Amino acid sequence: MPLIDIQQLSKMYYSIGEVADFLNVNTSLLRFWEKEFQFEVSKKNKKGNRLFTVKELEKINKIYQLVKIEGYTLDGAKKALKSKEPRPQATSLSQTEQVILKLEQIKTKLLALKS
Predict the structure, then answer these.
(1) Is a pLDDT exceeding 90 seen at residue 27?
(2) Quick check: is 78 in a domain?
(3) 108 and 78 in one domain?
(4) Is the dihedral of CA 98, 103, 104, 105 positive or negative?
(5) H-helix or E-strand spanning residue 93
(6) Which residues lie below 8 Å from residue 65, measured CB to CB, with a gap of 6+?
(7) What is the CB-side half-sphere exposure of residue 106 using CA atoms within 13 A?
(8) Is the residue at 38 inside a domain?
(9) What is the model's pLDDT at position 85?
(10) Which domain holds residue 100?
């Protein structure tokens, strides 16, 4: 079962079609999850198409992991997500490490382009 490799993402926003392709699911399932798990897509284009950020993709990954891989029911997945919510201090450290890693990747790419 595929999961989105967050570390390999390079764009700021991903369309619902791209996210569906990453996970090999229908776009309707992603829209259903958006309603069921009550998360708002932070950006839509002029046509109203959903554009997902990396943070939203992380949440979709968690939902996919629970529902499709571990076999949770929707109610069970909702409860698991609430109980697994990290505390703010733990997230800031994790996010800082992710930003540092991403900046190191960008630095490596820039140095490769320079030479």
Answers:
(1) yes
(2) yes
(3) no
(4) positive
(5) helix 88-114
(6) 3
(7) 9
(8) yes
(9) 59
(10) 86-115
- What confidence score (pLDDT) does residue 1 get? 55
Full DSSP string of 23-48: HT--HHHHHHHHHHTT---SEE-TT-
Specify the range with the lowest mean pLDDT, choosing from 6-10, 24-28, 79-83, 103-107. 6-10
Q: How many domains does the chain have?
A: 2
- Is 21 within the bounds of a domain? yes
19 token code pair:
């996210």
- The tokens for 85 are 């919510």
pTM over 0.70: no
In a domain, 15, yes or no: yes
Mean pLDDT of the region 17-37:
93
- What gap in Å lies between CA 30 and CA 60, rounded to an integer? 8
